[in-house]
Structure formats: structure tokens, C-alpha cells
Amino acid sequence: MEVIELTSDPNVSMDELAERIQLDQALAAKIVRTVNSSFYGLRQPCANVRKALVMLGLGPVKTLALGFSLVGSFESLSDDGFNWEEYWRRGLYSALAARCMAEAIGRESVADEAFLAALMQDIGMVAIKETLGDEYIGIIKSTNGNHHVLIRHEIEALDLNHAEVGALLATKWRLPAQLVIPIRFHEKPTAAPGSEAELARLAHIGTMVHDVLTETEPAQALRRLYEKAKSMCGAEPMICDEVLKHVSSHAREMSSLFSVSTGTTVSAEDILAQAARSLVELSKEGVGPGAAILGGGDEAFATVPHDPLTGAVGREGFIVASRRAFEIASEDESRIATIVHIAVEGLEQVRSAFGDVARDEALLGLATTFNRSFEPMGGLVCRVGEAVFAVVLPDVGRRDVARAIENMREQIVTASAMWSPDTNNEPMPITICAGVASVEPETRSVFTNDKLLVGASARATQAARASGGNCVRAFVPKANKKAA
């Protein structure tokens, strides 16, 4: 409480705060040890709390002091059937992910609060467990390990839930609103009020990272993470992947520093690879998001050939999907259909410099990148030529698609360095030219059939190549070109 009161004063004396923390020698030692860990990556060692305050600033030291105090307050509590390992795994993974995501999207100013909010989000579970004992343990067991349904089970049995109880407890402890609000709304961040809503979103995304790293079948959890991170924070799939790797690489060390057990640490790289394979299989079975929207469950779609190298739907599937997307948009004026052609350039340079295997790895890497960008939008990725991909996107307009491709162009430069060990971590000389065409209100009179729509997208790709390459061009009707 003294730390909270001192750090709430913007003019707090560093010496006074350091002196107060160092009254608890065990706490001070933990803070110094953590500050010197690889998690913070200081270039020179830190000898005491005072120096930590100078080197890192108020936020990280406050976070560590409160985090260690929280963990320490639980040390005397019995397990009595409560799964502490699962509890701390969820809390610590979520905290690491929330902090990393905040930094990745340029919100460093709230990164420390995001860490604490995620670490404390389920504190209400402990309060209820200590109060009701076996009755609450039974409620937790009734979820069969699915934390997402816990609140519903709590309300049905107790007419309250751990998010509400946690917020009440945080209020009683006189914690600031930056922690109370995310604790209260971590399960439903869109309902969070005021400026603290951002912290609730970050804590929620943190739990989704935890899900990807702990579920036996991570593909669906990864897809949910991509969708929510994009809609809540504007984070692209590549950022999510980096957050996953960050949590995976630091989880074991932070568990040790906090003196909690979180079980076996998993490899984010292995999980991403497993998820990618699962997404390919779902696509082949016609049950991926794009396939489902386009009627992929029927036999005609499910049996179309897939590219054996990338797992993408082949040309036949693209023809079927583009026709169906066009029909949906034509029958209902409130619907949209967008077609994208993506020409890949530089593959021959990759082959010449690194060999056929590296070229194939580049194609697989590109297909994975396209899927991560377009699947959350409901798109279906197809390979329609040796170095040409196409994407069918129902209910997404050309401007949104063009923005997604622009983001993806930048991602490819960084990502290509990791596609093949033969490149020695150097980016591949690969660029993409993309053309976009959409059935929208201003183009309905132009596109009277699906072939015209597909042709417009292909011509837009040719225009992108003719203008110098490595860019995006969208088909716009002549009457609207000046406005566009």
C-alpha cells in the first residue's frame, strides 16, 4: 500500500521510494534479481533498488514490487484441490503477453499496468476459493478445464463471478482504477468504461496468448488471437507471433523469479508450426473460415484439388469460390465480394542464390503469411499459378483489403529472413504486386459476372507490376477514379 501511495505521486522522491522498498530485504532482493534478468536486458548490472529506479524508471519497479507482494501474499494459502500451477500459468503468461503486446503496438506507457492487470485478473478466484472452499472447487471442476465458461458456471451456482469479486477486493485494497477496471472487465473488455478499457483489452489478449500456448489443438486459439488482436489493438498476425515467442522464451525464467510453478514451458515456434499445419488441413477439408462462408461444406468444394506444396486451394477451387462470392454479393446488395491477385517477384533470384529448397520454403512462407493476414478477414487463399496467389474475400471492401496488403508487404521483408536456414537470417529478395477488385455499390453495374471481377483484379495486378512493382493497385470505375 505504501508503494502504491508513493508511486501515485508524480513528484515522488526516488530515494524515498527506494528506501521504503528496501525495508523489505527479501522484496528488494527479488526486484534487483529480476531487473538483472534477460527479461529486461540491461547492458550493465544493477546493484540495488535505487539504481533500478534510475535505469528503468518508476513503472517497472512499481510493477515488480506489487507483483511480488501479490505472489507473496498467497504463499500461506493451502492448495486444498485448487490448481495453483494452472492459476499462475494463466496469470504469468497473460501478464508477459499483455506487456509485450502493449510495447509492440507503441503503448509502452501502459505496458507495466498491463502486466499487473493481467497478473491480477483472476484474483477473485482465490478470494472465492478461500471463502467457499470445496463448493467453489466443485464449480471450477464442472468447467472441465475450460476457463471461458467459468463465469457462467459461477453465476449459475453463486449469482456472482470472480471478475466482480476481484474488482471488489482490488477496491478494498485501494488499488488504482487502472487495475480495478481491467480486473472487473477482463472477460468482457468491450464493456470496460473510460481510458482503462485499453488495459482490459490488453489483459484479455494476454489470456488469448495463454490459450494458444496451452491448448492441445492451438489452430483455433491462434485464429481467435489474430482476430481479436487486430480488432482490439490493430495488431497484425506477425506481431502476435512475436508476442507468442516472447512469452515462450521468458516464461520459465519469470516463473522462477516469481517463485511459482507454471509447468513445462512450450516452444512458440513448434506451436505456430503445428497451428499452420492444422489450418492447412482445415482448409483442405473445406471447413476453414473462407470455405465455410463460401459453402465449403458441400462435396463439390471439399473435393477440389489443393496445392501440395503450400496447402492453398488450387485454381479449380478459386474458380468455384470466386463464382460463389460473386453470386452472394449479386443477390444481396448489402453484401460485398473482393478478389485479389498477388504476383510474387524474386523467386528466381532466391533459387539462383540459395537453391530449389529455399525457393519452396519461400512459397510456403508466403502462403502462411497470406493465410495469417486474410483468414481472420474470412478470406480463402488460393495458388493459381507458379508464382501467383489469389484470395477470395466475401464482405470485405477493397480499401480494407488494400490496407491489409500494404501491411503485409512490410511484414514479408522481416519474415522472409526466417523462412529458410540457407539464407543465414538475411531477408530474401522477394516482393509482391497485388491487384484488388470488389463488387461494391459503385461497381455493381460494371461487374455483371464473376469473370469480369476476376479479370479486373488480374489487370490491377498487371498495373502494379507496370508501375515498378512491390505495390498494390485497386480497380476503380472511371467515374470514381478522381474521388478514389
Short description:
By secondary structure, this protein is α+β, with helices and mostly antiparallel strands.
- The CATH class name of the largest domain reads Mainly Alpha
Spatial arrangement of strands, main beta sheet = 2-3-1-4-5
The figure for the number of domains is 2
Per CATH, what is the topology of the largest domain? Hypothetical protein af1432
What is the residue-averaged pLDDT? 86
Unreliable spans are none
Characterise this structure.
The protein contains 23 helices and five strands. It is α+β, with helices and mostly antiparallel strands and 484 residues long. The protein folds into two domains: 74-274, Hypothetical protein af1432 (Orthogonal Bundle); 285-480, Reverse transcriptase/Diguanylate cyclase domain (Alpha-Beta Plaits). Helix 3 (25-35) packs across helix 5 (58-73), helix 6 (84-104) packs antiparallel against helix 7 (111-120) and helix 14 packs across helix 16. The model has no long low-confidence stretch (mean pLDDT 86).
